[in-house]
Write a sequence for this structure.
C-alpha cells in the first residue's frame, strides 16, 4: 500500500513537468497542444542519440538537448502555429495533432519500433522505511523538484515570468502595458521545450524509449492540467501528484492496463462539478 | 488492376462515410471529435461481435453497431453539461477514444486482444459467389454512401440543421433564442455516432479481419483531412476530399517499389509524416477547403 502510494507519487512527479508545459502553453496560446506527447518522445530520442550513440554523459546530453529543443520548438511554432494564431483553438488543435504525428514518426523513422534505453549503469534499489526506491525514482524526484522550484522562481520573481503570467491572464491588457506578446510566446515555447525535454528523459528512464512513450502519457498530462485548472502552474503541479497517486492506487482494484481510465474519469468529474479546476479562475462567457 | 480499382473504391466509400460523420458533428454542429479512431473501433467491434458471439445477421448487427456508437456518443456529449468550452470537449473525446482502443486491446475474452477477430461474416456472403463478391460489396458501399449523403442533406436543410449551424456559430445566441443547447448537442453527436457505426460495420465486412492496430490515431488525421480539404459543411466536397486522401494514401504503398532501401516500418512512418505535414499545410493554406457549404438560394427573376 505504502509502496504503491510511493510509486504513484513518482508517476505523478513524472507528469508534473509536461503538465506544467501544457498549462503554460495553454495560458499563453489558448489552445490544448496535443503534440506535447510526441515532443517528449522526440526529445528523449535526441538525448538517446547523444547519450548512447556519441557516448556523452546523460546529464550533459539532457542539458544540451533541453536548450536545443527549446529553440526547435520556437522554429516549429514559427512554421506551424504562427500562421494559424488567429483561427480559433480547434484549428490549432488539429494542427497540433498533425504535428504530433510528424514528430513521433520522425523518431520511428530514425530508430524503429524497438524499445531502447539510456546508457546508465544499474544500481541496487535503496530501502527507506520499508519503501523500496530505485535510483531512477530518486533522480526523478530530485530533478522534478529542482525544475519546479526554478519554474516557481521564474514565474514569480523574474520579469519574463511575470510577463508570461500577464499575457496568460489578459493579453489585451498586457499589450497596453507594453508587453510584446510575440516575444513572450517565444519564451513560453522555449521554456516548455526545456520542460518537455527533461520530462521525456524522465519517462525514458522510468520505462523505455519507444515511439508511443510520450503520447501514452497525454491523457494523464491533460488530466493533471485540467484538475489544477488549465493555465494555473501551481495547480498543474498538485494536479499531477493527485493524478499519479490516485491512478496508481486504483491499480489495486482495477486491472493496470486501464490506468488511463482514472485520469479520464477525473477529467469527466472535474468538468461536471468544478469546471475551473482546483486552482483556476471561473470562466465567464461574454 | 480492375480488381484493385474496385477495392480502392470500396475503401473510399466507407472512409467517405466516416468523414461525413465527422463533418456532421464538427463541420455542421461545431462539436469537434478527436475520439474518431476509438469510436470507429467500437463500431467495427460491436458489429463483428454481435455476429460472432451474438449470432445476429449482418443487417441487425449493423443496426446494433450504429445504436451502440450513437449511445456512446450521446453519453460523451453529456459531459458538456457544465462546460461548453470546445477545448475541454476535445480533450474528453481524445481520452474516450484512447480508452475504447485500450478495451479492444486488453479484453482478450471478448475481442481476442492483439490477435484480432477473424472470419467476420459478410452480407449475403454465402449467396453470392466469391468471384463476384467484390462487385456486390462495392455496390452496397456506394448505395450506403448515397443513402448517408441523402439523409444528411435532409437533416442539414431541416429546422434541426439550422439549429446545428446556429450552435456552431454561437451557442450563447442559440440558447438566448430558446434553443435547448445540451439536448441538441447530444442529438448531433449521437447521429454522427450512428454514422461512425455504419462506417465501422462496412470496415469489418471489407477486411473480414480486425485488430486494434487498424484503429490507430491516424484514422483521426484521415477524417480531418478529408473534411478540411472538402470544406467544412459541404457534403459532396467531403466525399471528394475522402476520395483524394484515400487514393493518395493507398497509392503511396507503391513507394516501396521506388525506394527499396526502406523497410516497411520506415515506409509507414514516412506515410504518416506526409499525412501530418499535409494536414498542417492544408490548415495554413486552404482552411476553407475546396468546396462550399450548401446555402439556401433564391432566384429572383
Amino acid at each position: 500500500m505504502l509502496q504503491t502510494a510511493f510509486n504513484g507519487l513518482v508517476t505523478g512527479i513524472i507528469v508534473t513537468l509536461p503538465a506544467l508545459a501544457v498549462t503554460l502553453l495553454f495560458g499563453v496560446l489558448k489552445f490544448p497542444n496535443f503534440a506535447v506527447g510526441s515532443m517528449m518522445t522526440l526529445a528523449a530520442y535526441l538525448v538517446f542519440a547523444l547519450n548512447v550513440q556519441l557516448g556523452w554523459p546523460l546529464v550533459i546530453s539532457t542539458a544540451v538537448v533541453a536548450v536545443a529543443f527549446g529553440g526547435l520548438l520556437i522554429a516549429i511554432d514559427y512554421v506551424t502555429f504562427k500562421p494559424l494564431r488567429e483561427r480559433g483553438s480547434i484549428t490549432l488543435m488539429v494542427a497540433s495533432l498533425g504535428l504530433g504525428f510528424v514528430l513521433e514518426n520522425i523518431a520511428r523513422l530514425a530508430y524503429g519500433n524497438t524499445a531502447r534505453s539510456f546508457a546508465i549503469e544499474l544500481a541496487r534499489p535503496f530501502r527507506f522505511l520499508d519503501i523500496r526506491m530505485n535510483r531512477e525514482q530518486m533522480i526523478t524526484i530530485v530533478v522534478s523538484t529542482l525544475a519546479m522550484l526554478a519554474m516557481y522562481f521564474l514565474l514569480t520573481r523574474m520579469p519574463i515570468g511575470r510577463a508570461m503570467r500577464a499575457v496568460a491572464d489578459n493579453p489585451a491588457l498586457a499589450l497596453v502595458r507594453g508587453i510584446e506578446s510575440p516575444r513572450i510566446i517565444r519564451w513560453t515555447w522555449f521554456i516548455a521545450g526545456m520542460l518537455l525535454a527533461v520530462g521525456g528523459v524522465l519517462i525514458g528512464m522510468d520505462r523505455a524509449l519507444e515511439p508511443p512513450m510520450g503520447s501514452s502519457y497525454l491523457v494523464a498530462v491533460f488530466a493533471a492540467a485540467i484538475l489544477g485548472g488549465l493555465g494555473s502552474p501551481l495547480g498543474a503541479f498538485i494536479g499531477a501528484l493527485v493524478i499519479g497517486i490516485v491512478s496508481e492506487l486504483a491499480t489495486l482494484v482495477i486491472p493496470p492496463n486501464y490506468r488511463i481510465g482514472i485520469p479520464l474519469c477525473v477529467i469527466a468529474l472535474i468538468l461536471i462539478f468544478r469546471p475551473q479546476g482546483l486552482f483556476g479562475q471561473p470562466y465567464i462567457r461574454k | 488492376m480492375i480488381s484493385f480499382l474496385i477495392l480502392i473504391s470500396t475503401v473510399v466509400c466507407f472512409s467517405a462515410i466516416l468523414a461525413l460523420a465527422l463533418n456532421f458533428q464538427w463541420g455542421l454542429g461545431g462539436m469537434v471529435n478527436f475520439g474518431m479512431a476509438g469510436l470507429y473501433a467500437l463500431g467495427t467491434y460491436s458489429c463483428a461481435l454481435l455476429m460472432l458471439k451474438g449470432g445476429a445477421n449482418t443487417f441487425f448487427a449493423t443496426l446494433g453497431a450504429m445504436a451502440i456508437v450513437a449511445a456512446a456518443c450521446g453519453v460523451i456529449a453529456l459531459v458538456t453539461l457544465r462546460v461548453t468550452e470546445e477545448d475541454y470537449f476535445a480533450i474528453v473525446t481524445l481520452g474516450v477514444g484512447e480508452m475504447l482502443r485500450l478495451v479492444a486491446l486488453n479484453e482478450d475474452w471478448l475481442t481476442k486482444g492483439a490477435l484480432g477477430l477473424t472470419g467476420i461474416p459478410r452480407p449475403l456472403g454465402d449467396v453470392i459467389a466469391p468471384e463476384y463478391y467484390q462487385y456486390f460489396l462495392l455496390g452496397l458501399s456506394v448505395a450506403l454512401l448515397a443513402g448517408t449523403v441523402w439523409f444528411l442533406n435532409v437533416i442539414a436543410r431541416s429546422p434541426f440543421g439550422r439549429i446545428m449551424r446556429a450552435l456552431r456559430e454561437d451557442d450563447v445566441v442559440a440558447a438566448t433564442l430558446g434553443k435547448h443547447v445540451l439536448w441538441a448537442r447530444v442529438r448531433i453527436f449521437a447521429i454522427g455516432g450512428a454514422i461512425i457505426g455504419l462506417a465501422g460495420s462496412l470496415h469489418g465486412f471489407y477486411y473480414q479481419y480486425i485488430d486494434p492496430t487498424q484503429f490507430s490515431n491516424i484514422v483521426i488525421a484521415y477524417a480531418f483531412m478529408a473534411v478540411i480539404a472538402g470544406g467544412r459543411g459541404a457534403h459532396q466536397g467531403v466525399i471528394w476530399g475522402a476520395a483524394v486522401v484515400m487514393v493518395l494514401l493507398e497509392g503511396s504503398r507503391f513507394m516501396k517499389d521506388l525506394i527499396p532501401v526502406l523497410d516497411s516500418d520506415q515506409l509507414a512512418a514516412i506515410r504518416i509524416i506526409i499525412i501530418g505535414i499535409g494536414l498542417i499545410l492544408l490548415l495554413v493554406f486552404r482552411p476553407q477547403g475546396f468546396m462550399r457549404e450548401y446555402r439556401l438560394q433564391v432566384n429572383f427573376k
